[in-house]
Amino acid sequence: MTFIRTSTLLKLVPLASLLLTACTLTGQSGKPPAAVTSPEWQQHEKQVEALTQYQTRGSFAYINSTQKVYARFFWQQDQPERYRLLLTNPLGNTVMELNVQPGLVQLTDDKGQRYVSDDAEKMIQEMTGMNIPLNNMRKWMLGLPAGAKDFTLTPEARLKKVSLDQNGELWVVDYQKYDANSQPTLPSLLEIVHGDDRIKLKMDNWTLQ
User: Please, are residues 188 and 202 in contact by the beta-carbon 8 Å criterion?
Assistant: First the structure.
């Protein structure tokens, strides 16, 4: 399937009030980190992997030397390979809506114009200039290593840091806070670093089905 582009996507509106501040991980009590082979981690990982339908909303930031983008986001996962990502500006107006299903990606901009592709990551980069690792990020959002073998855990057996070398490029995920109200426990603040790029996600809440 070829990529279809009919106009230029409006750049996301900066929103300084949504700057994400660093937080500490819950449960930092001086205890040693859990081992990646611990039963606690294996049980938690299995519970999170079983999630197929969920929603979360919060703040999104993409920062590098050439651009700083801030927006509100809404993520809706209907099936393991079917999801919707909505970005809105400070007034709550839609800036970008992405609908993904196997073999088909549809992006709608703020003017209601639609673009079709079969590669969500490539489409986002071409339309906005942002290198967002959607395939891995949707696992990292849940606190899963997304195939990475190099990761460390908190004393509570939750992800603390993930390092993934993919195609010669290093991605590092730093987990800064978890939502103690969700069952299973899910991240509420994380940062993804890739070279000069930084992606910050703050999840206000999770709705699990």
Answer: yes
CB 133 within 8 A of CB 121: yes
Instruction: Return the domain boundaries, the chain.
Output: 16-208
Q: For residue range 51-98, list pLDDT tens digits in order.
A: 999 999 999 999 999 999 999 999 999 998 899 999 999 889 999 999
Determine whether domain 16-208 maps to CATH 2.50.20.10. Answer: yes
Give CB contacts under 8 A, 24+ apart, made by 74-82. 75/138, 75/141, 77/51, 77/52, 77/53, 77/138, 78/53, 79/52, 79/53, 80/52
Q: What tokens were used for 174?
A: 């730093």
Question: Whole-angstrom Cα distance, residue 98 to residue 107?
Answer: 5
Q: Write the pLDDT tens digit of every residue in 112-129.
A: 999 999 999 999 999 889
CB atoms within 10 A of CB 8: 10
Element (DSSP H or E) covering residue 171: strand 169-179
pTM: 0.85
